[in-house]
Structures are given as C-alpha cells and as structure tokens.
Amino acid sequence: ELLVEMTGSIYEKNFKEKEIIQRDAAAIAKVDGYTFKHCARIKDYSTELWKKLKQPIERAQILVWGAYFHDIGKLAVPLEVLNKPGKFTPAEWEQMKAHTTIGAEMMRNHELSWLRNSAFIVEQHHERYDGKGYPYGLKGDEISLEAAIVSVVDSFDAMTTDRVYRKALSLDEAIQEIISGRGTQFNPVVVDAFLNLLHDQQFKWR
C-alpha cells in the first residue's frame, strides 16, 4: 500500500504524458496521411543511427523526440497545400517550408517541458549539407548531427512510402537516391552509417 501511495503520482504523470504524446502524433498522422508507424520508424532508425555513430547515450532522448515530432509544424499548414498532388505555387511552397520554424516554435512552447530541448531538430531537419536547404541555409557542420540523422531517415522513409504526389520507390531506388545525395543533400558521415545500418539489417525496412 505504501508503494502504491508513493508511486501513484508518478504513474499518473507518466500516463498523462503518454496521452499527450499520442494525441500530438495522431494529429500529425491525420493531416499528413501517415500513421503512427511513420513516426515510430523515424524515431527508431534515428536512434539506431545515433548508436551506430557512437554518440553520447545521455543525449539520445533529445534525438528521439526531435525525430518523432520532426513534422509537428505541418499541423499549421493548410490541408489543401499539404495534400496537393501537383506542383506548389511559390506561395504554397513558402507555406510548406514554414513547417520547420513553426514546428520548432511549437516544440519550444510545448506543455511537456522535456520536449522543448528537441526544437532545434525540428527546425533544421530540412537543411542540406551543401547549404541549399531551408529555413536558414545552414551547411556542413552548422547543421546539428541530430537533424542530419533525421534528414536521412525521413527522406528514405518518404521515398519508400506512397504519397499523394507519387508512388513509393523500391528499396534499391531509394538507396541510390540517398547515395546520390551524399555530400550534397546529406551529411556523408550519416549516409555511410545509414547504409551500414541497412546492411546490418539485411536491407529490411520495418
């Protein structure tokens, strides 16, 4: 009875936080046509890459939640833009690109304080290694390793998934796209680790 009394508030807090996480993930899945599995894949593979790169385990949680909520800013993008099958107009493209900065702001003001530290990942996950990404045109090591990891994993998952504007690529085609983006779109160190990870998993994508 004493144990129940002492841990009750912790259990209730964890349960409530889990509900909030699931609520936000469901909202993103609904507007972006994805499922919980997409968020989980980005989170899981990003974490595996982090370990593959032998990064500090104490910073892994920041990566986990930045990866899981990388597209939270899409909640602010109009559905007609988000699900448009054709090419964006310049104005629509600006709306789409804004999901990075809007998402970062949402994370920085999130009701769960421990999610706020992951905002920079949300903000940077569309930056490119060659400096041609958005929102700020960061390049090379100006881009956090966490965001560089999410960029590779998210791109690969998007390419191997049916979207409103195109059919999924095969696994081999997606791998070639990642390789072709090595050193331009993607951090080469992350690409190499990602390819090694796929090899270790016998090129199976969950």
Q: Would you write up a description of this structure?
A:
By secondary structure, the chain is mainly alpha-helical. It is built from ten helices and no strands. The protein has helices spanning 2-32, 36-52, 60-68, 79-82, 90-97, 99-108, 119-124, 145-159, 171-180, 188-200. The protein is globular, with a radius of gyration of 18 Å. The protein starts with a helix and ends in a 6-residue tail after the last helix.
Q: State the distance separating the first and last CA atoms.
A: 42 Å
What is the percent of helical residues? 55-70%
Query: Average pLDDT across residues?
Result: 88
Uncertain spans, ≥5 residues at pLDDT below 50? 1-8
**Number of helical segments?**
10
What is the rounded Rg? 18 Å
Most strands sheet: none
Give the overall shape, derived from the CA principal axes. Answer: globular
Total number of β-strand segments?
Answer: 0
Order of helices and strands: HHHHHHHHHH
Report strand %: under 5%
Output the structural class.
mainly alpha
Features:
206 residues
Secondary-structure map:
Layout (H helix, E strand, L loop, with lengths): L1 H31 L3 H17 L7 H9 L10 H4 L7 H8 L1 H10 L10 H6 L20 H15 L11 H10 L7 H13 L6
Helix pairs in contact: 2-3, 2-8, 8-9
Give a brief description.
The protein is mainly alpha-helical and 206 residues long.
